[in-house]
Amino acid sequence: MSTQAPRDQVFAEQKAITDFKFNAEVVGVFDDMVTRSVPFYVETQRMVSEMAGDIVTPGSRVYDLGCSTGTSMIALHPNVTPDATFVGVDNSQEMLKKCREKLGQFGVQRPVELVCADLDQGVHVENASLVLMMYTLQFIRPLNRDRLLADIYRGLNPNGGVILAEKVLGEDSHFNRLFIKYYYDMKRRNGYSDMEIVQKREALENVLIPYKLLENRELLLRTGFRYVDVFFKWYNFCGIVAIK
Prior knowledge:
By secondary structure, the protein is an alpha/beta fold.
């Protein structure tokens, strides 16, 4: 989906580093950024759309929290019942504008609602059979994550699911250091310079706060989900699916 996206050069030049924001500059290169920065991003989206086909029910709502440019909804569209409503939520108006454009370009013809909202303030979910958080929860302040999951759980129908993809910490410092090294090696293979890697890491330092995989699992179980399992793991990235 992102092969024609402009190349990510947001951190290609030396600059004064401020907290990372999903502003117009980032939105313009976001699809290239995620495919080069997130390991197996395309395959993970395919896996999520595959699982969604067995989770989404007719007449229900599918929420994509932190929907960015709409890649997940585009991937899901051919695999789920056509009478399910898609609800994309993001706190960036620029992202939502790009999302609406892409949904049209890829022929997503079904009921779609796009909502600009700050997930740190919670979220209203209703009649949901599936809620996606694709690399989203890591940007929510830790003190607000229990409340956000509780809001989602209340709005899920019985047997509804949550699919969560996250950057995670290693379970101990030894593996954490190794996994980060392997991750930066991957970014270099994908064309990022050492300066780009360092500057983006600094920009994300107070914005992206990862949990350990087991901490994310415990968060879902504590919220009340019956079944929680890992469907994807690559060093310090993981995918988790949970069923109400």
